[in-house]
Amino acid sequence: MNLSSSSGKLSRNTLISLINKSSTFPHLAQTHAQLILNGYRFDISTITKLTQKLFHFGHTRHARALFFTVPKPDIFLFNVLVRGFSLNDSPSSSISLYTHLRRNTDLNPDNFTYAFAVAACSNENLLMLLHAHSIIDGYGDNVFVGSALVDLYCKFSRVGFARKVFDGMPERDTVLWNTMINGLVKNCCFEDSIQVFKEMVTRGVKMDSSTVTAVLPAAAELQEMRGGMGIQCLALKFGFHFYDYVLTGLMSLYSKCGDVKTASLLFGMIGKRDLIAFNAMISGFTSNGETECSVRLFRELLVSGEKVSSSTIVGLIPLHSPFGHLHLACSIHGFCVKSGIILNPTVSTAFTAIYNKLNEIDLARRLFDESTEKTVVAWNAMISGYTQNGLTETAISLFQEMMKTEFTPNAVTITTILSACAQLGSLSFGKWVHQLIKSKNIEPNIYVSTALIDMYAKCGNILEAWQLFDSMSEKNTVTWNTIIFGYGLHGYGHEALELFNEMLHLGFNPSSVTFLSVLYACSHAGLVEEGEEVFHSMVNKYRIEPLTEHYACMVDILGRSGQLEKALGFIKELPVEPGPAVWGTLLGACMIHKDTNIARLASERLFELDPESVGYYVLLSNIYSTERNFPKAASIRQVVKKRKLAKSPGCTLIEVNGTPHVFVSGDRSHSHATDIYAKLEKLTGKMREMGYQSETAPALHDVEEEEKELAFNVHSEKLAIAFGLITTEPGTEIRIIKNLRVCLDCHTATKFISKITERLIVVRDANRFHHFKDGKCSCGDYW
DNA sequence: CTAGGGTTAG
Predict the structure, then answer these.
(1) pLDDT tens, A300-335?
(2) What is one GO biological process annotated to this record (predicted)?
C-alpha cells in the first residue's frame, strides 16, 4: 500500500492501528511520517503508542528523542518511558526519568510509575527510597506496586522485607502470590514457599500455571513427593493446560525424588524439550544409578545439535552412585577436554568430589591444582576429600594453606575441618577452630554444631560436648546420634540410653546409625539386657534392617558378658553371611573369657575371610599363650612374619602447651628421655608399695606387646603419661591418645598413677575413652 | 523449570 498517495486525512484510530500493525522498524518510521503529515505530531496518545512500539523494536534512542519533542508529556507517556528503558537494558535511564518527573514537572507519579520504577532499581537503597515514596503518594497498597516491591526485595535477597510488604497488602492477586512464592524459592526458602502456596490454596486464591511452575522446584528440592503430588492434583483439578514449563517442573520433581520412571514418562510428554528438561532428566537418571540411560540421553542431546551446558556435565557425573564409576567419570572428563568444554569452578569441583569419593585423591588434587579459578567450594571439596580418606594431617595442612589465601573458610570448611580434628583427636586444634568460629562470625548452623559436639566428644571433653548439645535450639537425628555415640565412647551407657529414650520421646526418627550408637554404648557399659531389648525394638518396632555392624555389636554385648555360646548361636542364626567384623568380635570375647574352642572356630573363619589382617593372628597366638601352648603360639607368629604382615606399631600422642609429642614403645629418642624414665622408676616404686604387680597375662586385644622379649620395653602410653606429669603443673589433667587398645598392665598402672599423683588422666585408645581418677577407671575394667 | 562443597557409623 502507498500511504503517501492517500489524499484524505487519516483519523487517529487509523494511525494507531497502522502503528500496531507495523512489523518492522522502517515500516514504523513510515507510519511516523504519516502521523506528522496528518498533524498528529503533538497528539499525545498517538505519540505514546508510537513510543511503545519503538521500545518494542529496541530503538531506545529514537524513543527518547521522540519523547523530548513532546511539549507537555502526561504521566502515561512518562510511564511508558520508565517501563521502556528498564525493559531495554537501561534501568538507570528509568530512574533518572523518574527523578526528572518528580523534580521538574507538576505531574504526580501513579501506581504504574511506581511499579515500573521499582522494577528498575539497581540497588537496595534506591528500592527503599522508592518504596517510601510510593507509600507517601498513597500507592503502598496497590497490588502492582506491591508485586514489584516483593519481586525486587527478593532479588536483593531481602526476603524479610518482601514478606513484610506481602503480608501488609490488603488485597492480593494471583500475580502477587506467584511473585512471593517465586521469590522465596529463588532464595532457597523452600519450606516457606510451600507454606505460602498452601495458604494460597486454603484461601481459595485462583492459581495459574505460573504458580505451579514456581512452587514445584521447592517440592523437588525438599524431595517432598507428597507435597509435589498434591500440587499436581490441584493443577489437574483446576484444569490447567499442562504447558511444557509445568511438565518440565513436574518431571524435575519426580526426577529429584528418585522416581525416574514417572519422570521419563513426563519427559516424553513434553512437546518441545529444552536443555533444561534434558539436564533435569539426565541428572535424575544419574543420581538414580541409571548411568546408561543418562549417557544415552546425553548422546541424543549431542546428536540433536543442541548446546550442552555445564549443568549437563554436572548432571552426568555419577556423584551419588556407590562405586566403580571411575571409568565413566574419566570418560566424561575426557569428553570435556576434547570438545573444549571449559571446566568452570562448578564442573571442576564436581569432578574433584567424585575423584575424592572414589579414593582417587591424586587425580582430584591434580584437577584442583590445575583449576585456575578456585572457589571456596573447590577448597572445601579438596579438604573434605582428604578428611574422608583418613588423610587428616593433609586435610589440616591444606586448610592452613587456604587460610593464607584470600579465601575465608565458611561453615562447610569448618564442618569438614572439625571432622578431621575429631579423627585426629587434637583437642587444642579443635578448640582453636571453635575460637575461629566465634571470631570469624561463622554461621553456627546444625552441621557446624554437630561437628563441634563430635570433635569435643572424640577429643575427650564429653562435658563440653554435652553443654554444646544442650544449648542447641535445633537438633536433628544426626545430632542425637553424635551425642549418644559420644556418651558410649566414654563408657556412659546409662546416659546414652536415657538420651536415646528422650530422643524418641521428642519424636525424632532413629536411624540405623542411632541404633548402632546405642548398641555400641551398651557394649561399652556391659548393659546386656538393655542391648538385647534395643536390638529387638530396632528390628520389630522400627523395622530397620540390621547391618553387619549391628550384628557385630550384639555379638560384642553377649560375648563380653561371657555368654559365648549364646553369641555363637546368634551368629549361626544370622540371615546374612557373617563377615570378619562379626567373627573378630567373637574372637575378642573368647580372649577375655579364655575360651579356646570357640576361639579356634572363630579364627579359622577369620583366616579364610580376612587373611591380610594381623590382629586376629595376634589374638589367637595370645590365646595359645594363655593355655601355655607356647610352640603353637610361636608358630602362629611365624605365619605373620612369613607373610610379612605388618602390624602397626603402638604409639601415643600427648599435647603439652599445644605442641604434640609422640612416643613409641621403648622410646629413648625424646629430649626428656632421661627424666621420663627416672619419673617412671620413681612411680613404679610407689606403685609396688601400694600393691601393684606387672600383669603377666597376655594382652586382651591387639595391643603393643607382640613378642615376649618386648616385655622389657615400656609401652608408649606410660612414657607419654610420665612426660605429661613432669611438664605440667600439679593437678592439671592429662590427656593422651593411643592408636591401639590399652593393655591390661598399662590400664592397671594408670589407675595407680592417677591415685598417687592425684591427676585426672584421660586416655583415648583405638576403641574408646578411659577416665582414670583416684585409682579407678570410668570403664569399670570393662573394655 | 537445570549444576558444585559439609555433620553421625565395631
Answers:
(1) 999 988 888 888 998 988 766 555 567 788 888 888
(2) mRNA metabolic process
